[in-house]
Fold each of these.
Amino acid sequence: MTPIEIGLVSVIAIIVLVYIGVYIPIALGVVSFVSIWLMRDNFDLAMNLLKIAIGDSVMEYTFATVPLFTFMGLVVSKAGLGTDIYQVMNAGFRKVKGGIGIATVGANAVFAAVTGSSIASASVFAKVSVPQMLTYDYNPRFAVGVVAGSSVLGMIIPPSAMLIIYSFVAEQSVGDMFIAGILPGLLLAAAYVIAIWTMGRVAPAFVGGRSVGETEWMTAREIAGKTLPILLLIVVVLGGIYTGWLTPVEAGATGALLGLAIAALRRKMTLKAFWEALLETGHITAAILFLITTASIYSRMLGLAGLPNELGDILSQSQMSFFWIMFIYVCLMIFLGTLLDTASIILIVVPLFLPLVEPMGLSLVWFGIITVVGAEIGLLTPPLGISCFVIKATLNDDRISLKDVFMGAFPFAVVMLIVLIALIRFPSLSLALLN
């Protein structure tokens, strides 16, 4: 077999292995290692490239952001800040049709700015928002759909683990990726709000719900007590990066320390909870860095096979325009999103398309936002919509089936696709804050 044939077989093998349940880093690492061995018929070369991949990836200083932002998100979640911001949003939208859904989107957007985790958002708001919507006779599918749809904001609004992973694959600044994610994340949140408002008038049966009654407004003191801690974290972390006062690593360390201080002052952080947060941070960090290491050897395998150059030659000979290249890329991302998780998609597909995008003079930061948003649609689509599975498992309610979660999330997946098209058509939406 030629190197290109081996490369093609390896990509297909990785997708198949991941789909049948093989741990993603194992699939990436083993297949890439064996492919290099077969292409060069040299076991020592494969071993040396593996050593280089380890040294060039997890040893980089910027990846210190992974444990720091992970720990900050876990501490904030345990401190109950997600519940607090939801209560404030819910009070503000209590008289609007679908108001609890709008409150969930708003709270998720704020919560995402300090956690960076779709899974954490889905878990927290499945417990907080869905029971309240069911109490007020909202359609169960709408209730779980809102939580599933808005949970993806955690992977777009910085800090985001997916933006960190992309920054490694594309060799871009983590700080630039974080700043570029702000406007697209807010745009998606606003699109969700508009969609809910529209559904409340066009398809009221799908939304359901009844008036929450004459609930009293929160006092200014109550609002401040529930919102100021999380707003302070956002200002310190994102403001520090945006102004240049803090590097992403320093911002992560500052945010983690500030989050721990807030949790301690609110008396929500016991020694047991602190230890659990540390352990979970270790597990998540090890998993992400293992992914990054195996992605490094995968990229080297693709380079040795010449697969990216071959793909570029094919597309050049076919004289495909920018529109068709992006059309193929987005379709591929959405298709793989029904099979693989976001990290796998980024690690497998991005190295193939970067050599095509870079010569076109396109911003790789913009391309990263397109990649993450496109891959995140997969969190809401069967059969592997991870956010949907998390919501179903968290609720543990026989009245709501997994099908209900997927059906409820479908309108929000469509909204994501519309926002993705807008981001492709108008790159300035992603790059405005960087100029």
Amino acid sequence: MAKYAGSKLLYLATAAMGLGLANSQQASNFDVPTEVAESHSCDALCQQIIAQMNVLDLGTFGTNFDFDFYATAANFSESKPGDLLKLLPLRNSSAISNAPEGVTVYKFQYTSAAVDGAPVPVTGLIALPPAKNDSRSNLVAFAHGTTGLYRGCAPSTYTQLFNDDGWPRAVAAGYAVVVSDFAGLGNNYTEHLYLSKAQANDVYYSVLAAQKAFPQRLSPEWVSLGHSQGGGVTWQLSEHKLVQDASSGYLGGVALAPPTKLSDQFQSALRNIQSNSSTADQIQTFLTTIPPTTLGLQRYFPGDYDAPLLTEKVKERVELAGIGQLCLYALGGLMLDLTPNDVFLNLNNTDDSLMQKFQALNSPAQGDPAEKPLLVIHGSADILVSPQSSKASFDASCGYGNILHRTVYEGRDHGSVLKDSSTEWIQFIADRFAGKDFGSTCTESVVGGSEL
């Protein structure tokens, strides 16, 4: 499966150049000619939306993609998961202009493992706080939220790395942070397998590679932190066999606004639309998740997944995403002019057997043990990933004997909960490194409301 991407992405890249879409330093969000868009059921309004969303995406990911750095390292073929392949210091870059004084940032490339265990190159970032008396910095591994599914959508290409409410807060608190782009983002040896367990491998092996890059600067112990897609990754990682032994150095994790069981959440959203219990914002937000979900399943089940619930119009627009190499805003923007009846063949049909199979193979909270504590945080006003979904997975995991704490932040949405809960998750991280007891039972609390 790891090699599946090569020929397909090469074809798309070649097609893009042939259509005049390529810029020598641009790797995402290409302008698609009108006739190509129209042939993929994207009319004038659709094209206008995508053009507007492309501006937002390119403002985030930039147009100065370092193709040389993100190319697969020459020493990759002899490497094993956890090996360091490339290390590049970032200096005098606008991306780090807002970094706290004394912080140094590096891009790196390392070897991870695909879902089938095959080695795969991955890129990412390492941020080091100022050294204190030559002491080691405690290490946090950050798993990012959805940025897109194509190579130009990698977080390590952000035009402003420190304009972020996530991992930069951990750096400001004195932690070293390693950020995996996830396989398929940045480096394109393989495709990004959205929401799969492959990302848990990427986080684990990013830690090993970062520790090899800076053996005297980084602690052998580490904590994972993830938001949105990355929150689900952190939950997957907490149950990963690789971190159940104390020798891994893993101390615990924080899962913020985590998607857990894809099929269950998808079916719940459809049922809410059927029963007219969804708001317009909830419906539109749900529809924007259709392209990345469809692409992820197509890649996970290559040649087998035909998106049985979707109309041909939507399937054609999903193909357009690959031609334009659309990142987060434009990818979701493909759905913004559509209604549920435009998207689904039959709103009463929620049966997608391969989506259910994907959930069974990749979702956490299905009985695997987690030896270290997990903090789950969710906003009550989250309409992208429902708080009820993390509650169901929390209850299931506790039922299997794992020890978790779940905090609900009243009135916080999918994005704001990351910043507004930072005092709690930074304290959780500090407590893990201090060896403080997490307790022996699952607990829940509410911030801004009555106790559960």
Amino acid sequence: MKPQRHIENIWLALEIGNSRLHWALFKGETLDLAWDTEHLPESVIQQLAQCQTLDDLLLIIFPIYHKTAAFSSFLPPIFIASVVPSQTALWQSYPHVEIITLNQVPLLGMYPTLGIDRALALWGAGKVWGFPMLVIDAGTTLTFTSADINQCLVGGAILPGLSLQFLTLGQKTGQLPIVETKIITSLPPRFALNTPEAIQSGVIYTLIAGIKDFIEAWWDLFPQGKIAIKGGDRTLLFNHLQALYPEIAVHLIVEQNLIFWGMREIN
């Protein structure tokens, strides 16, 4: 049964990603708070299921939250979009939960294994900024997902994201170090003279070139098509695009909350 929102029309949106949980607190159509946490163990989720009020819930999942009188009288529903089945299963104990599925997203032409995160982000971006729309998600994986003016899926692509490429090189080779994305503040030299910068150069320049190629192919199909970028590495990749291809970067919509906009549109 679909959970009913409380009379105050307050509800929680939860995106269960490959690496983290992404949360949003809505008051009606308005996103009031958004934050991230690590994946929660089953014991903590069971603790959340025993909460009686939103205040109690936020004290557990929103570390800098301070108890107020505003959310003291009810427990809100949680609407979940998940790409991690093992995590999804843990939330069945929560009393007011709905797992959002592909058949709730009004995009046309979707295939059965399309990720719910990709579908919701594309739907949210298109409803806010218009179609045709290409969404680039720079998360654990780097994905491209697009729809035409008729809100019909055009298609997309999936490849390892920036951090995953660095991690794989460090873990699957004998001598290469793991490069942390947080240490990258500017473009590395293209022809590097040390191993860490050589890894940065190889991954970053080919990744940016790939993004540029997909964007140009998108504009070949839809010259007026819009492009939005989200995900944990969005700012880093956008800054590099801005440095290398400012004529492309100026057209990008940088917005982390695309999935939440998609959830808002279907709730």
